[in-house]
Design goal:
Dihydrodipicolinate Reductase, domain 2, 2 domains, six-stranded parallel sheet, alpha/beta, single chain, about 350 residues, about 25% strand
Length: about 350
Amino acid sequence: MNRSRLRFALFGCGGFGREFARYILEVADLPAISDPDPGARRAFAAALKRTFNEYDNADALLANEDIDAVAITTANFAHKSTAIAAANAGKHVYCEKPMANSVPDCWEMVRACEKAGVRLMVGHKRRLRPAWARMIELTKELGPVIAITSCQYYDARPYNLSGWWTRAAESGGLLDIAEVHILDWMRAMCGDIDSVRAISPPQLDARFDFPDTIHVELRFRSEAVASLNVSMAYPLLKFRESGGPLVICRNGGMRFVPSLDYLDLYWQRSEDKEPHHERFDLGFDQAFRKEIGDFVNWVARGEEPCLTWKEGLRCVEGMEAAHRSAAQNGAVIPLPLYPELDNSNS
């Protein structure tokens, strides 16, 4: 790269886009933004106290702006089309999770970026937040994971989800909007998933055109197992208070207790008389800076990043398999889900 700083465009000016842009601006320039909603663009510029070249569609921005890379923080259903348009224009692609709404869509993004010779990273910050990264690190101390259980029961009513969030064809479904984080972290703990089985009870929240509760069983190629129980219809917890996993390792275990303001991790070797306790802050800043910093260094200097597209695709694969299993009354779904699309390097 001849420039001293990469130049980004950001697609999707909603609340998350506004937050993520702050981290981009620490390491790169951000001359242009795109969102079909002029109100979202105005709020974006006001929040960041900057002016941007504004566009209401991706094609116009890509045709007119001198940029190196894009950051995609749009609604889930727009990830694929925006990423492919950027790749076809020769731009490197950072895409927020979930990567896309189906595995075939993910592969289309991968092939477009491979053909154009550009980088593709999918942001999965949970595994990078210090408390969650510490659990991954502790597997070296406690031995390989044998089993994990996580119960992400929380109350979605205060979030007032509406529009595309409530439609499976646009959001991807329950796991895509509620549990993408922990599924990816489980893969970081246990490796590739071998099979998935899931069931859903009757729906409670009529806003959604998909079940609002699901219980998922994961079997990994490492022979570890995990249960991932998710509901947006549980009135006793907020999102950040839920989902704390219990982990059994070969030589010990972990217990993670999240709260609104801090995170408590307890861990113990089999021979220890008392558990160790570590307290963490929420760790969003560290994770976002790691993601975008690694992406910039990958594009500019070819340095190995913390994430690529592979984590994003495999996470979508696990979620799609779970939704498919629940629709089939708990059928066991082996992975890869689309073997005809896979290749030995993926």
